[in-house]
Specification:
about 450 residues; elongated; Aminopeptidase; Leucyl aminopeptidase; 15 helices; Leucine Aminopeptidase, subunit E, domain 1; Leucine_aapep/pepB; 9-stranded mixed sheet; hydrolase; manganese ion binding; 5-stranded mixed sheet; alpha/beta
Length: about 450
């Protein structure tokens, strides 16, 4: 179903947002039977509580939604999304109790509660229809919801239907929708145009590797987004065990996140010159597979010793980042489902990121809270640089020892961004392990709303 607000109408039922313990105070303005109904129902305003309040004739006259306490709200991303399914079949209009500073994000959460991945069977949840709350920019919130839905759909689609060719097709549809230009460099042309590591990682697969290059916008500061597009990762010759391969359709989650962010930027008409680069490959096993101990020469000219073919994401990103760096954009951001170490450090909810300037980190931190898109800064810790220097080549793609895996991966990527001072890298999970209000189990956007919220500050828009 479209993630849209309902048009306001006289038939819409008033929705009152009630802090925990505040139901009786709200009921004082109503006849005695309303308080009696609240008593009988046990409604006390806890998060997840919901209630339809009848008029004297038995028909609903209002709906109540629990808003909890400040303490319990801090533990939940989208509060009102928890009650959206309870009001299925109704159209609701927020009448009271929604704080102004929470209105946009709670409205977004309600819309996202209606998301379901329905490519193979209808999984659209039944939720109440919500009119845009007063003061909320309905078009903006719908744009955010649609961008998130795109990201989720791309990640949720299995590799049989979301290989490099399909990822290119999805990117092309997005480009056509907004009048952007898309160039694709495919197969042996990657070698001709000096993208050797993208070619090396993807050459073993049935579908040729490619680099997707989308451009949009004619004026304003330059923003380049780079997303890891490994459509499936077997681990290559360092083959993953089955238990680790089960979620590898999501290894293009970085690409899905930058495409969702790009859609929001274009739909909102931000005055930027946007570039999106996606190395789209499948890391497969065949006689063409790159091997442990191979040494690859990157676009940047740096040589890379391969000590684990399962550390392929940083290789394809490196060539794309080197290309982006040649234009010296005002801001460059990469996103990738890159390391298990980041998951160990931050778990599935937080999006760890690295930034070359404190101002980037500060802006992202300020934007993350209002966007309900939590991020966590990690350091480019320079004493660890020696860990990615193997001696036989300039760089090691998989340092031994098991320490600081997310940091060493980020330091590896930074070696390919030498002429662009303002760079941030996100090491995301891109997956919701179990369903939560507004976040269905499966693919997930992590970081795009925080980035979007920070762009006006970062690019002086």
């Amino acid at each position: 179903m479209p993630l849209r607000f309902a048009p306001d109408s006289a038939e819409a039922l008033d929705l009152h947002i009630i802090e925990q313990g505040g139901a009786y105070a709200w009921a004082e303005a109503y006849p005695d039977h309303v308080r009696a109904w609240i008593d009988a129902s046990g409604f006390d305003g806890a998060i997840g509580d919901s209630l339809l309040v009848p008029a004297a004739d038995g028909r609903p006259m209002a709906a109540l939604a629990g808003f909890g306490t400040p303490g319990t709200r801090r533990r939940q991303r989208f509060v009102l999304a928890s009650v959206a399914p309870r009001f299925a079949g109704l159209t609701l209009r927020v009448a009271s109790g929604l704080p102004e500073d929470r209105a946009e994000i709670e409205a977004l959460g309600w819309l996202l509660a209606g998301y379901g991945f329905s490519r193979y069977r209808d999984q659209s949840p039944k939720v109440g229809a919500l009119c845009a709350p007063e003061g909320v920019d309905a078009a903006r919130v719908e744009t955010l919801a649609e961008a998130e839905a795109l990201t989720r759909d791309l990640i949720n689609t299995p590799a049989a239907d979301m290989g490099p060719e399909a990822l290119e097709a999805a990117t092309r549809r997005l480009a056509e929708k907004f009048g952007a230009r898309l160039d694709a460099t495919t197969g042996e042309a990657l070698l001709e145009k000096n993208f050797p590591m993208i070619h090396a990682v993807g050459r073993a697969a049935a579908q040729a590797p490619r680099l997707l290059d989308l451009r949009w916008g004619e004026t304003g500061p330059t923003l380049t987004l780079v997303g890891k597009g490994v459509c499936f990762d077997t681990g290559g010759l360092n083959l993953k065990p089955g238990s680790s391969m089960g979620l590898m359709k999501k290894d293009m989650g970085g690409a899905a996140n930058v495409l969702g962010l790009a859609q929001a930027i274009m739909a909102l008409g931000l005055k930027v010159r946007l570039r999106v680069l996606i190395p789209a490959v499948e890391n497969s096993v065949s006689s063409e597979s790159f091997r442990p101990q191979d040494i690859l020469t990157s676009r940047k000219g740096l040589t890379v010793e391969i000590n684990n073919t399962d550390a392929e994401g940083r290789l394809v990103l490196a060539d794309a980042l080197a290309l982006a760096d040649e234009e010296r954009p005002d801001l460059m951001i990469s996103m990738a489902t890159l390391t298990g170490a980041a998951r160990v450090a931050a778990g599935p909810d937080l999006a760890p990121f690295f930034a070359t300037e404190p101002g980037i980190a500060d802006a992202l931190g300020r934007a993350a809270g209002p966007a309900a898109d939590p991020v966590w800064q990690m350091p480019f810790h320079e004493p660890y640089e020696t860990m990615i220097e193997p001696g036989i080549a300039d760089l090691d793609n998989a340092p031994s020892g098991g320490f600081a895996g997310a940091i060493t991966a980020a330091l590896f990527l930074r070696r390919f961004v030498t002429d662009t001072p303002r760079y941030a890298h996100f090491d995301i999970f891109g997956w919701q392990p179990s369903a939560a209000p507004g976040r269905s189990k499966g693919g997930l956007g992590q970081g795009p709303r925080a980035i979007l919220g920070a762009l006006p500050e970062l690019l002086d828009l």
